[in-house]
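Response to reviewer comment R2.3. The reviewers asked that we include at least one raw input/output pair. We reproduce the pair for DnaJ homolog subfamily C member 9 here without editing.
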Amino acid sequence: MGLLELCEQVFGTADLYRVLGVRREASDGEIRRGYHKVSLQVHPDRVDEGQKEDATRRFQILGRVYAVLSDKEQRAVYDEQGVVDEDSAVLNQDRDWEAYWRLLFKKISLEDIQAFEKTYKGSEEELADIKQAYLDFKGDMDQIMESVLCVQYTEEPRIRNIIQQAIDAREVPSYNAFVRESKQKMNARKRRAQEEAKEAEVSRKELGLDEGVDNLKALIQVNLRSDSYNLCTLWSICGIIFCFLLRSIPSTYLFF
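Raw output as returned:
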């Protein structure tokens, strides 16, 4: 069975972009982040022994999807013809996809992540990322706040100010979704973030965890293996940690 048929069977769609949850026009970075996000959900390490075989199959198929879309020639063929070259080297059936994933997403410590946050915030890199997110999502602050690295909902005024300065300087266009965003939409976004933070605190207390590094790691492991896996709740608990996990910097890392 070919890759597209496998995707239809396992993920319910033969569209490789939909499998990764990204746009057809997605950049290399977006495709990488999409692969990382979905792979965390289907990774064999987060399921019980009885589900490992199915999870491994999904994980392997996902690796092949990323291999196609991350290869310029393979992606061009798929975009133009809607087919995949099953005989290509990038789709080698004997490839160790677990090793491939670990090669892409190397380990790092929580301290390294926190150090990255300190150097990233206020940097030219962050400024460029915020502008790019504004352009990618045409001023939709819901999506901008979800996509920019290391951002908490309390920082929205800072992010809005950066974008407004870029608009005033004519570095980016003025999108109605941004300049005319309703108070109702702003308040709804704030309420969602506050509710997620409350859920996160409840989860932390139920598990008897304090805010130490080891316990944050433990909580991540619990969420990754849970049937009620909740990305939003985990985001609120782990802040910069999960932000870093889901939105890769030039080299993406894992510490668990």
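The CA atoms of residues 14 and 133 lie 27 Å apart. The two ends are 33 Å apart (CA to CA). Further pairs are available on request from the corresponding author.
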